[in-house]
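does this look right to u?? phosphoenolpyruvate version
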Amino acid sequence: MRKKIIAGNWKMNKTPSEAAELAAAIVKNSAGAGCDVVVCPTAVCLPGVVEKTSGSNVEVGAQNVHFMESGAYTGELAANMLTDIGVKYVIIGHSERRQYFGETDETVNLRTKAALSGGLLPIVCVGESLTERENGVTSETVCRQVKLAFLGIDKADAEKVVIAYEPVWAIGTGKTATAEQADEVCGIIRGTIGSLYGEDAAEKIRIQYGGSMNAGNAAELLSKPNIDGGLIGGASLKADDFDVIVKAAEQN
Ligand code: PEP
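got this back:
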């Protein structure tokens, strides 16, 4: 039985003091939660959010990590800088990074390997664009993204990764994949992991759905057999909405 994981991607929102306040509210709401709860603020907010969540069951994730250990990479953050302050997870390959910051399948793979060797748990995002869905290449697209993201990663490490299936057309648009569409693609992703690492790895790996998940639709999405949690953008910025999603994960 896979433990569900609900992660909030706060994107470029909240000042450090606002982030600390939101984190405190989520800690209060999530006490004793029966699923994993992760919040991912901007880099500058990480220390304050780690402090507010310390001793609670809420873990903290970064929104990106560089693939080199140190050096002349202005503006970047290395895995050991994140683990040193108590960060546990990192989002890798979010579609906004692929779209606006030149992230490719190759850099997603490099970042995933760097995260794992640096002791972070990657949340690797994959998902098709609207054009890809409309042209019937959703399956090929996500299979390619998954296979390239996991290149050179052994089974023990692969099982630590969380995959977030995020159809690009559903992110921040208010358009959600139906629970059936989301479950179908999460199943295809699980099958891809099975072909790479075997059935037991496929059964273990956690696959989230992301894309306009909210307090109203979370329960249905999270009730599907291949959906092990959610990566939530907009709705994660409101402690009460996020809490409804956490509670839906506990019950499904
Ligand atoms: C996301 O940023 O990963 C996301 C799914 O955003 P939203 O929930 O706002 O669609």
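Residues 5-251 form a domain with the TIM Barrel fold (CATH 3.20.20.70). idk if thats expected tbh
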